[in-house]
Amino acid sequence: MKEGNTGGLYEVEESMSAYALSPESPVRITFSVPQGIDVFSGFGIWYAVDTEEPSEVKIRQISGVKYPLTNKIFPEPNWSKLGSMWLGDTEDPAEITFEFTTAKPTNFYVYEALAGTVSEPELDVAPSALTKNMYMFAPEALFVVEQGSIQIDATEIDATKEITLKNCNRCGRYLPINTSNERQHLSFSNHCTALHKVPCQDSTFSKLKRPGEKSPSLILRNGFQLECRFCKKFYVNAALNPQRTVGQMREDGQRRRAFELLVNKAIGRSPVVQYREENQGRELSDDTWKRFDKKCFKCQKQLKLQDVNLDHTRPLALLWPLDATATALCKDCNTDKRDRVPAEFYTSKELEKLAQITGLSLDELKSPHPNVKILDLIWNRRDWVFGEFFEDSNFAKIRQGKDTRNLIVKALDKAAQRAPEGHRYDFSGAYAAFLKNKN
Ligand SMILES: [Zn+2]
Ligand SMILES: [Zn+2]
Ligand SMILES: [Zn+2]
Question: How far is the CA of 7 from the centre of ligand 2 (A)?
């Protein structure tokens, strides 16, 4: 994919490969996808079939876990997409096979196929309420970090098909669009859809140039947004908190995710998964939202489910996992609260109400102490933390090159300093000794 940065550029490329698809010879595609606990993974493909009747082509998943799918098949000359994306709850790779069959012979073209773990700065720090339906953003949100593999079982043929790519004003990637019927959109949402607005009168969205060209050579009817669907959601629509820089949020996010992973590993599993298993498949986010009357507990603003920020109530920085005691907050209140214990953020009246809703006692809500059980557990297993956990591939994915290890050790010290006597462990000292021993 090429770089660029106006949102008004396009290029035409050719398919990467082509296969025969006939009643006798199906096309089978297997995606092998690496996974990690609380790490996004996904797969996807942009493909095309040479038929005006896409209903003749049947797509069936014949093996692997059935994740919710983006599955859009469009008639020729348009391109189609298939894919998914999810938050992992295992470190075992997923292997998923699809079979394409047809009633009449046609060509099957592939532009690009992707599989792997996914990491992206805004995605990594986004509240879970914002990342619930990531499958809808495959393949365009597949910012692959650890590559998986894609196996296509079919007869390759010597044929090519053109595909139009448009650049994104934010990420700069060139991604597929359909120009013969723009409503069959792929990586960018339309600009104008209402009948009385078409054709789109705004040249920013409806006239595209090739790189280096002086005047537009592709005139669109509906037009496309300047940002790809991923950037539109995570960079344009998601209100950014003006008080914190992107760098600060990223560092917070990395530390939070690493801490969350550490706490989850210490207790053996993801509390969100545990909640689902203990509550007949119900989701923690749904239940918390309803328990708090579909409002932000702090400012009482009405919240849609997708806008709920699940707050740990007792902070993750003090090693409290996200569980059934979570509080529903709006994004702003959640950002305000950050690592504070409830007594530092809520009024005494609010604390009483919070005790009623969450089932935590007033003493628990007022306690400045960390989760001593988990603190002890982590201290007793510190060699595992410094050795295995810090070397773990999931953790490495969160690190993204920065040294989150020191950040984590410092954060553990901070939590320990707030513990009762007898639990104020010196993680920094222990880590230094560990590193010295290793060399
Ligand atoms: Zn983008
Ligand atoms: Zn428009
Ligand atoms: Zn609020």
Answer: 14
Q: Which ipTM score applies to this complex?
A: 0.65
Q: Which of residues 47 and 439 earns the better pLDDT score?
A: 47
The stretch 302-322 carries a mean pLDDT of: 91
Please give the structure tokens belonging to residue 106.
Answer: 């046609």
What distance in angstroms lies between residue 67's CA and the mean position of ligand 1's atoms? 24
Measured in residues, the chain has a length of 439
Q: Tell me: the pLDDT tens digits for 323-373?
A: 899 999 998 899 888 888 898 889 999 999 999 999 999 999 999 899 999
Domains by residue range for the chain, with CATH: 10-170 (2.60.120), 239-268+369-439 (no CATH), 284-368 (1.10.30)
Between the CA of 168 and the centroid of ligand 2 the distance, in Å, is 16
Q: Which two tokens stand for residue 85?
A: 């994306």
d(CA 348, CA 352): 6
Using the structure block, give the residue that is written with the tokens 């569980």: 323
**How far is residue 167's CA from residue 232's CA, in Å, rounded to a whole number?**
13
Write down the mean pLDDT value for the chain. 88
- The Cα 328–Cα 314 span in angstroms is 13
431 Cβ neighbours under 8 A, 6+ residues apart: 382, 386, 405, 409
Written as one letter, the residue type at 125 is V
DSSP H or E segment with residue 285 = helix 284-291
pLDDT digits (tens, 9 = 90+) for 377-428: 999 999 989 988 888 766 665 555 556 788 788 889 989 988 999 999 999 9
Distance CA 366, CA 401 (A): 38
DSSP state of 237: I
Distance 5 CA to ligand 1 centre (A): 10
pLDDT of residue 431: 93
- CA–CA separation, 80 and 84 (whole Å): 14
Q: How far is CA 332 from CA 111, 147, 328, 336, in A?
A: 41, 36, 12, 6
pLDDT reading at 80 higher than 60: yes
First to last CA, the chain: 42
CA of 175 to the centre of ligand 1 (A): 9
